[in-house]
Write a structure and sequence with these properties.
Elements (H helix, E strand, L loop, with lengths): L1 E5 L7 E6 L7 H14 L3 E8 L5 H12 L3 E5 L3 H10 L6 E3 L4 H15 L2 H5 L7 E3 L2 E9 L3 E13 L2 E11 L15 E9 L4 E15 L2 E9 L3 H12 L4
Parallel strand pairs: 2-3, 3-4, 4-5
Antiparallel strand pairs: 1-2, 6-8, 7-8, 7-10, 8-9, 9-12, 10-11, 11-12
Helix pairs in contact: 1-2
Amino acid sequence: MEIITKQAANQSVNFIEVVGDLISRESLILQEYLFACLDEGKYFQLIDLKHVQKIDGLGINIFDYFIKRGILIRLFNVQTDIRSILRLSGKEDIIVMINETDSEKAISLVNEEILKIGDTVKDRIKRRQHARAMVFGQKEFKYQCSQNGVIQCVANVLNLSKGGIFSDLITAVGLENGKLIDYPSVNGKRCFEIKIKLFDELMTIETDGVCVWQDREKHKTSIGVRFEGIKKEGKKLIHHYLSNPLP
């Protein structure tokens, strides 16, 4: 996959064209590019997808992740199949597609949004403190709830750093009553017996932590957990994973 930088009349808009499919390891090229934009303060992204024929869950999660960090991303020239996949993913309201094929008109629409938003976008930006990588894996953890006692959770791991982990909750069940918790409130709670499974069953990180933020949209709950008391072996595994993501 290749990323081509285009010239936009308004220097506030970072206009790029993606050539190739947003699947598997190819998507990581876009991930690293957007991380660089985040670090450099390029918070308004217009992305031309006319040469993208396929997208998978990782590609969708990359867009979702950077939007949640405050970057304004607008897609245009989106193929019909890609639009259908985004609708099925349930993230069509988050990942905004401009119904336009002309680049100048698309840039003009983004400019209008920038004028409305102004400098407030800087207040929403969540800059990264540690190097991190998109990952495939799951984690299990427990936390204490006053209403339902100890809650056992399973989550899809999306992003890992040496300081913590970002994930989407799959299930939350009360261990004492077996009750399924539809909308668990984890923010601010101590998370214990965290087990993060990466690569395969042989690579498991065990630690404790605390949930430092939680974001709920529709029927999905995303959480950020900061590690506390992680052992030396776990730190080595994380360092290895960050150096060799997605085998």
